[in-house]
Amino acid sequence: MKVRTLRRRPAWPALTKHQKEIAKLTLRQLFDQDPQRGERLAVEAAGVYLDYSKNRVTDETLRLLLQLAEQSGLRESIDAMFRGDKINVSEKRSVLHVALRAPRDATILHDGHDVVPEVHAVLDRMAGFADRVRSGAWQGHTGKPIRNVINIGIGGSDLGPVMAYEALRHYSRRDMRFRFVSNVDGTDFAEAVHGLDPAETLFIVSSKTFTTLETMTNAHTARDWLLAGLGGEQAATARHFVAVSTNAQEVARFGIDTANMFGFWDWVGGRYSMDSAIGLSTMIAVGPENFRAMLAGFHEMDQHFRTAPFARNLPVLMGLLAVWYNDFFGAQTVAVLPYEQYLKRFPAYLQQLTMESNGKHVTRDGRLVDYDTGPIYWGEPGTNGQHSFYQLIHQGTRLIPCDFIAFARALNPLGRHHDTLLSNVFAQTEALAFGKTEDQVKAEGTPDWLVPHRLFDGNRPSNTILLDQLTPATLGKLVALYEHSVFTQGTIWQIDSFDQWGVELGKALAQKIIPELEAPSEPALSHDSSTNALIRRYRKLKGAS
Ligand code: F6P
Q: Which has the closest alpha carbon to 274: 291, 289, 288, 256?
């Protein structure tokens, strides 16, 4: 199918016109007109319930958005991804994270070769290793069992593992410590190893490329720390370092035996890798069985995305709604608000997933886009956010679509806590949608001068995602839901959601600046006057010449 440029797809101008027609329509009116709306505009699949009724959409909006999806070739794009086509055009790579969670008996081809057996071979090796560490059979250099696991990685090699560890902490080994070092700021490493015995510490160096500046700097510091603590015996590293990477050559060059390396493949993007060997720390924390349950959850959502009609397809609906607000209402952000303390790192994880994927300014064939692409994703767990930034969402001048995420059953049922927590989810979405009218405010006896301050205009959209309980499987479903929503958005915008060239320039400039900061005498500087002056001031402040 030949896909036209975005503005030429018939649904695009139709949506522009339609938005003008319904811009003044309120959620109050929409709900009054249709008493069944709350049940009608909701979908349940793979155990995930999505209520999207509190969005500023009519049946016509949804019809046009679904048309846009068809006219954008979404069906063909989904098939192309699952087929292993090289849809990451700028890096000439397939995008097959769905293969990471395919069941053993599935077949997924990459360059004519079934990758599923390799995926499971790595998973089996990971499981064997995780079991040995968890049981104490894998011992440190001095014969002590491993009590501390430190993942060293950054971006996709950190955010997924740290998010998953926090999310699944309830299922994790409580007699072991799991820490995560990502920042090149030495404080991150220093604090992570504070109070730890090197003889009981295992480092997992996680890096797809094994060349990332931050990760390699931290890995070298970790090796120095370990050797200093274990009497300088080089042989100690073999029992205390394992690697997760696609780059066996660099792993060996660092000094890690490739027998202790867990591989993955160039068809797994960094931000789509938490379910690959990059999840080794997760697997050690929660055990292979729970890890496999998480993969099964991912897979269930993959199957839903692949097969469900778009009108009942959770990631497609969420992706289309994000496009609707981003491109037709000028909304610049999406707030993700998990009412689940264990998901405290979920918004940070989503920031890379969404913004590194869809923060693009050219189409797949290199033309400058003339519409907005990826919105800014951000958020914090509820109810904490309510006492901080929700004021702006309720009464500020910006439109901020929100995703509320909640679970029906608490992992830590304590008295009235969970009902109180959930009452806040429902109260917030209700308040955002329907607000409080002038009459209501006045009826409360509010003096006239105070009325404008206490008014809530409402009409502020939200999705509510309700699941049964936070388990490894539901976590997998939730992550896959957002992965595929990102894919849907990227397909509509005709961008490459799987490259990340935007991070390169800063990396290259930092490499140039490092020697300028470390030079014993003042180097000749050829940056702009601001950067030159900052470098000189820094050198002076730190006592260099
Ligand atoms: O800087 C961006 C990035 O390339 C991310 O896409 C990636 O997740 C991260 O760096 C880490 O890369 P690596 O796993 O190769 O160390």
A: 291
What is the DSSP code (8-state) at residue 324? I
Residue 82, C-beta contacts closer than 8 angstroms, at least 6 positions apart: 98, 108, 306
Q: Are 214 and 154 in contact (CB under 8 A)?
A: yes
Cα–chain center distance at 270? 11
Number of H helices, E strands in the chain: 23, 13
State if residue 458 touches ligand 1 by the CB under 6 angstroms criterion: no
| The predicted structure's pLDDT at residue 479 | 98
User: In angstroms, what is the span from residue 215 Cα to ligand 1's centroid?
Assistant: 9
Name the residue of 157, 215, 271, 350 to mutate for ligand 1: max ligand atoms within 8 A of Cβ: 157
Q: What share of the chain is helix, strand, coil (3-state, %, to 5)?
A: 55, 15, 35
Q: Active-site positions?
A: 356, 387, 507
CA-nearest residue for atom 10, ligand 1, is 155
The residues of the chain scoring below 50 in pLDDT are none
> What is residue 447's predicted lDDT score, i.e. its pLDDT?
98
pLDDT digit string (tens) for 519-543? 999 999 999 999 999 999 999 999 9
Q: What is the 496 CA–ligand 1 centroid distance (Å)?
A: 17
> What spatial distance separates the first Cα and last Cα of the chain, rounded to whole Å?
64
In terms of Cα–Cα distance, which of 138, 166, 132 is closest to 282?
166
